[in-house]
Fold this sequence. Notes:
Chain A contains no helices and 11 strands.
Amino acid sequence: GQNIDQPTEMTATEGAIVQINCTYQTSGFNGLFWYQQHAGEAPTFLSYNVLDGLEEKGRFSSFLSRSKGYSYLLLKELQMKDSASYLCAVVDSNYQLIWGAGTKLIIKP
Amino acid sequence: DARVTQTPRHKVTEMGQEVTMRCQPILGHNTVFWYRQTMMQGLELLAYFRNRAPLDDSGMPKDRFSAEMPDATLATLKIQPSEPRDSAVYFCASGPGLADVETQYFGPGTRLLVL
């Protein structure tokens, strides 16, 4: 079967750094997406990784290790507005997007 | 700016009633996705269209759900008859349809409550 695992909830402090992990077991791999979803709103695109390594985009970075079936989203200099759910999604061999359940990130002052 | 739009944004109905949700994909986008999101199940793909043709609706309960694209600017998702377990947020997303792997752009969702 296809499986994506993320922690259900994480708490971090404003100004700090947080790492949200995602592990996956899928039939094939054609890339991994991270989306951000604020409460009551739609998911919005954050990043896409298909090759191993770290991709940095401002305060957000995403890392991928295909051999380990592992990715993480790194958020630096946390702001209150970063409080949201973060969804990991993997593109399988049929180019279907397999979604994780999401990690709810709570930022405390 | 270009956005996916969905109507209605909120819907409260009684069990047994028909519900129709509409989506206008971003102009020029050729792929359309319907998702359902609940606290328990997360995001579930219900249906997927490319160039208005249904490619995958395996995630959709066929006995009560139907999805169509009457034209390139309108996608519909119908539930008939609706049941309380259908209460969820229904998202429509669209993509350019130019590559096998693309970013999906989500609409604001329809929040459905079936009493």
